[in-house]
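Hi Q.,

Before the meeting this afternoon, I wanted you to have the alpha-D-glucopyranose prediction in hand. No need to reply - just skim if you have a minute. The sequence and ligand are here:
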Amino acid sequence: MPHRYFSRMAGLCLSVSALMQAADISSPDGGLAHVTETKAERDVRMQWWRSARFGMFIHWGLYSGLAGEWKGVPGGAEWIQKNMELDTEEYAAEAIPLFKPKEGFAEEWAKLAEEAGCRYVVLTSKHHDGFALFNTAASDFNAQRFTGRDLVREYVDAMRRHGLRIGFYHSVIDWHHNDYDYTINPDLCYPKRQRFMLEERGVPRNQPAYKSYLHSQVRELLTNYGKIDIIWWDYSQGAAEGERAWNAPALIEMCRHLQPGIIMNNRLYSYSGLKPDAGKAALDLRKGDFLTPEQRIPAEGYPGVDWEACMTVGDKWGYSRFDTNVKSVETLILKLAECTARGGNLLLNINPTASGEVPEAVAKAMRGVGSWLKICGEAIYGAEPAPELPSLPGVAFATQKEDALYLILSPRRDDGGKNGAPRESGEERRDTVPLQLPASVAGHAHPSVLGMPDYVVSVRSEGDAEIFTLPAAAWDRMNNVPILKLTRKP
Ligand code: GLC
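Predicted structure with the ligand bound:
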């Protein structure tokens, strides 16, 4: 879409930013005065993302080969360099020989994303360890040098072949680059031995030079791979944010100039996505397009604000052989439904091994969500919350679209005995389940069960309520999360 204000302002803003970068000074509003966009322009830009609802996150890098273990000691996953307090040389010496991407890994990811029903994919182009998965002229710490392949290019090509929207996660903090100023905020973690090594060798810190490096890598990513849909920054904390830490206004401006339609998250600025109240304050749209609650879904969403919950299928972002606590398909479906019902997206993370292989349990869970979406997707893609609806017993979440209301039913924990109790011996499994709804809701009428087009839902009135008779088989078929669709009467 055309962004007139970008082209109009780009030249001026870049030169102002360049001046500010040279002097490393801050303007009173953090350099953001120039960023404007009308609501209508923004709505057009955000449209595909808002209706997509479901994306696949991929954490993959040198750490994947360490598989959660440093010389026999468990040490986390993508944070292992920091957790074990390693300097970049010892970390790389151990991890590089283990990082062996197999042929066709990206094609497998793209197929998996498609089977899972994801509409977009976000890959770590560089995580905190500083290792670039792409061919970059800005640093020799990259995949091209050590594997002879541009892994980002393979990823982009595969995703494009499958019609998926393409995103890069890019870490702005860096545990490898000499210029990176780890004192910029003591809360921004930095591996101790890496710091000692730099101090011992008397290597000076130079954040302005680091900022240029960061910008040039982002420029490569947004120039060399065709159309890129998302850039997902990670992360800022306290005063280590924005203009001071990353020259964020100029970085944002450059991204929007190179990729006018791009959508970006809010983590060039401080935001604790882990805290329950994070994001209560309105998002400053000059600082990013959406909020990023991490490993949690905000109880009431953030009405009027775009957001995306990022979550792991297992417990970790990167691969660890100890990470066996894979969530059930039912849990993942409910998380996706909850995000949609609260007005947000879900970015669900997979963690391939060093070869690029997705652990089978993780792949299976993703495919399970996809099978459900094949039938129930109409209640998710392009659907909106149904906030006017009271909370209804038996209904986990509700979404709506055009003239349809989708009641995403609570999973059943019983095995089909009377009134939800376990079956007694000899008792027959009930083949129908009653659902009582207030007449005001039921007034939507034309009830149907997604995936069971031949089943006729019977409805009878009982006082102020209506009792819907649903097939017990719907729970079995729909991974225990069936959907009752009510179409509004014309
Ligand atoms: C955190 C972690 C990181 C992970 C990210 C995903 O900020 O630092 O390892 O990539 O969250 O949201």
